[in-house]
Amino acid sequence: MGEKANYSCTIPPVATYVGIDPGSSSGAICVINDYPDGHNSVFIAPMSKYTDRDILNVLQSASMGTPAGKVKAVIEGVHSFPGQGVASSFKFGQNYGMLLGFLTASDIPFIKVTPRTWQKYYGMKKDKDEGKPQWKVRLRQRAEELYPDVKLNNQTADSLLISNYCKHYE
Question: CA 30 to CA 123: how far, in whole Å?
Answer without folding.
Answer: 21
